[in-house]
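Hi L.,

You mentioned the student needs an example of a multi-chain input paired with its predicted structure. This one should do, with 546 residues in total across all chains.
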Amino acid sequence: MRYLDRPTDRPHLGLAHGPGVMAFLQGHGEMVDYVEAPFEQLRHTPELGRLQETIPLVLHCASLSIAGFVPPTEETVAAIQREAERTRTPWIGEHLAFVSADGIHEEADRDSAPTNLTFTLCPQLSEETIERVAENLEGVRGRFGVPLILENSPQYYPVPGSTMGLTEFVARVAERCDVDLLLDLSHLMITAANTGTDAEAELERLPLERVVEMHISGMSTEGGVTWDDHAAPAPEEEFQLLRRALRRAKPRALTLEYNWSALPEGVMRAHVLKARRLLDGQ
Amino acid sequence: MKARAVHAVLAAGVRRPHLIDEWAANPETLRRHGLAPESVDAEALRRFAGLTAKVRHNGARNLLPLSFRFLAAAGLELELFADYASECSRAGREFAGGAAERCDELMAYIEQWLDVSERDQALFWDLLRHEHAAVAPRRDTDGAEDAEGGKARPEAVARVRGELQLHEMRSDPRELAAAMGRREPRWEEIELSPHYYGYWRAPGEEAASLLELDEFSFYALRFMDGQKTVAELHALLGGAGAPDAAFLGAMEQLAGAGIARFAR
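Structure written out for the whole complex:
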């Protein structure tokens, strides 16, 4: 088994697990330091864990519902703990979002089972949620032998009852909870486009010194809204934003999240090389 | 508005997107759940539900990459998946377990969702069927249709050898497939005109061959069900009296290409 457990001066470069990754590793394995593996895939497709015989894994997670009001089951937390120990991931990236919520019923006075999703949702951006994140983190972070880092969500629509923007929310959570960050540059750009703000200005308002890992992926626009799109290559503007972020941020890793479909091998290679050059300060 | 209530409503909308349509039709329902109706961007939430449905079809995307690329390039992707997610939710139906099954169910929905009088959607339907026919798995057969030979006599029963999918299209889908392979896909120049195709797997072959057919062969093959005789096919295709030499010759050509066989 291979592990990403030795600190280095040079940031690591990885790929999110998805179609095309195995083929890319076979041809260009030396260009990539790790594969970011979703806990949910490891849980339901344990054979994915064998990938670690050839390359280290970093654990990514979308199950803790860290900004939510319905906690994950003990079984889920224990399974994440087991995967963290087995993979020896240096940290666990989790979304600053929710995947479970109270159920609703057409008749409001009737109880319903919780709603569980397979996709994370941007939470209400409010003091109430910040306090909830603090409580949730308090409850789970001691369970893992490695740090939990939180990823900024993409925002597609105004979340009712929000009292602040996403950048302020992320910064406030980081400070209140003393938690480090996974900065998804695509999510940052998407949020800026959908809320009429400037991505570079928002970037500067983030506590970049807390960024441990970064994500790069694509985006697309439909119906006047910009959407996350891991089947599209990142635009040049995103690499420019990465260059700007790296003036202050000293991430330990950068992951290319091209995991919804297999991008052409030439595009993958070009983007890996471009990201590597930027990480190396070129 | 309490965060807990907001999360409950947003999650319910994404999990059961038909509720978003109901909230849009009856905004006071949202108030009962603790939200101001005007605070919910129903259209964006609906498309977000479509995004989550789209992501759950990544397996289908890998089977049909060009069709998905067209959907994105034509700006139809989230509109389609939002409608599909809402329809499934309304019917209380979960997505199928495997990628191929998900693909088949999506195809069935798309067929009734599309408005093929719209040029882009007509092109898309051609491309989708073209791509799907190439990746559809082989059916298990008893080998009865695999045998060769036979003479195209009027009383002989005609049947297709191997597996054949027939599609009448409005374009040559290979042109759109080629356009989707380009960095900046454009398809305005593609001409619309009737095309007839067969996607044929010869007995024992894994890969499907594309047959460009004329209208006569297309319908002749469509009517070959392993029960009708050559004479019955002739009548169905508008022939009067007994099949003439030209008709029998055309049948023989299909047999010569290995696509059809004739038996008493």
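You could point out the following to them. The first helix of chain B runs from residue 3 to 15. The first strand of chain B starts at residue 157 and ends at 160.

Best wishes,
N.
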